[in-house]
Amino acid sequence: MTKIREVAAYLESIAPPVYQESYDNAGLIVGDPNAEVRGVLFCLDSTEAIIEEAIRKQCNLVIAHHPIVFRGLKRLTGRNYVERVVMQAIRHGIAIYAIHTNLDNVYFQGVNSKIAGRLGLLDTRLLAPKANLKKLSVLVPPAGSEPLREALFAAGAERVEAAGQLSFTDQSGSGQARVKLEAFFSSGKEGRMLAALSAAGNGQQLAYELVSIENANAAVGSGMVGRLPEPMEEKAFLQHLKQAMNASCIRHTRLLGQKVETVALCGGAGGFLLGNAKAAGAQFFVTADYKYHEFFDADGQLVIADIGHYESEQFTIELLYDIICQKFSNFAARCTEAVTNPVHYYY
User: Which CATH number does 132-214 carry?
Assistant: First the structure.
C-alpha cells in the first residue's frame, strides 16, 4: 500500500518545496504522513464542501493547489471556515496536502505550462527565470551517497544529481571508490549546504568544489511566454482565451489594433510580471487579480487580460490528477466535482 509520505515525496520531486515563495505554506498541512492512502481528491481550494466530498468518496487525502492555512492557528474553535476545515479533516482522518507556488515556479508539469498548453502556445519559456544559482560538487564513498543526498535536499538543494563514480588508489595502495554528487541551490543557502556537507563527513573532510552559475535557471521561475501557431486578431484571441480557459468574462485594457502572436501569462495574481511581459515583446498578458489603477500600467504597450484567479488556475486540478495517475495505480484518484470559486457573476 502507498503511504501519504510517498505521494508527497513524488509531488516534491516535481515541485520541490524550496521553490515556494517565502509567504507560502505548501506541503502536508493536516494528517499522518505514514497513513496508507485509500483515495485522493484533487481540488483548487480545501473548503468544507471538499472535505465533505472526500468523506462521501472515501478519499483520505486531499491534494489542493492553495493551502488552507497560510498563518499559524492559535486556536481551533470553528469560528471561521479555515478552522472548521482543519477540524473536520482531523475528525474524519483526512490529510490535506497543498502544492502551491512551488508548482507555479516549475517549467515542466507546472501551472503555467498547463495554461500555455490550453492556449496552444509554442516555443514556451519562463517569463522570469530564477538566477543566482550555485553548484556544489562533492566526492563521497558509495555507502554515504544516499544519506548525503537526503541531507543536501533537507538543507535546501533544488536538485541533486549523481554525476558518475570514480576509482583511484590511495597512498597505501588500496583501491578507493567515490560517487560524485552535484547539488544545485540558490546562493542564499550556501551556509546550510556546507554545514550539511560537514556533518555528513563524520569528522572527515569531504573533497568538494563550489561554483557560481551565472545563467538563469531555465527550469525554475515565474510566469511563461510563448507564441501562437498563427497570429490572431485581438478580438479573436479574446474569444479563444475565453473558450480555452472556460472563463465567464475577461476584464482587459483597451485593444491596440495589432495582431497577437506573443502571449505572456501567469496563473493567479501575476501583476508583478508586467514588466517582464513587456520586455518579452508580448501583445497580451494573461493573468488575474488586477486592481483598477493597475490596469493603467499597460500604458498602451500591450493588452492586460484578467480572466479571474479561479479561472486561471482551475486546470491545475487536472494537472495534479495526471501527475499522480502516471505514478500510482493502487488507490482511487478523483477530481472534485465542486466549484470552489468564491467569485460569482451576474449577467
Answer: 3.30.70.120
Look up residue 128 and give its three cell numbers. 522570469
Express each pLDDT in 136-163 by its tens digit.
999 888 888 888 888 888 888 877 888 7
Stretch(es) of the chain classified as CATH 3.40.1390.30: 4-102+315-335, 111-128+222-307
The class level of CATH for 4-102+315-335 reads alpha beta
The per-residue pLDDT for range 319-346, each reduced to its tens digit, is: 999 999 999 999 999 999 999 999 999 8
Please give the Cα distance from 28 to 317 (Å, whole number).
Answer: 17
C-alpha dist (Å) from residue 30 to 91, 100, 308: 11, 15, 28
Q: State the span(s) of the chain assigned CATH 3.30.70.120.
A: 132-214
CATH 3.40.50.2300 fits domain 111-128+222-307: no
**Separation CA 64–CA 244 (nearest Å):** 22
Cα–Cα distance, 270 to 266 (Å, whole number): 5
Comparing CA positions, the residue from 147, 155, 238, 237 lying closest to residue 190 is 155
Sheet with 133-140, strands from edge to edge, namely 159-169, 175-186, 133-140, 208-213
Question: Which neighbouring-strand residues pair with 177?
Answer: 167
- What is the grid cell recorded at 172? 597505501
Q: What is the pTM of this model?
A: 0.80
Query: Is 67 in contact with 25 (CB distance < 8 Å)?
Result: yes
Residue whose C-alpha cell reads 491534494 in the numeric block: 63
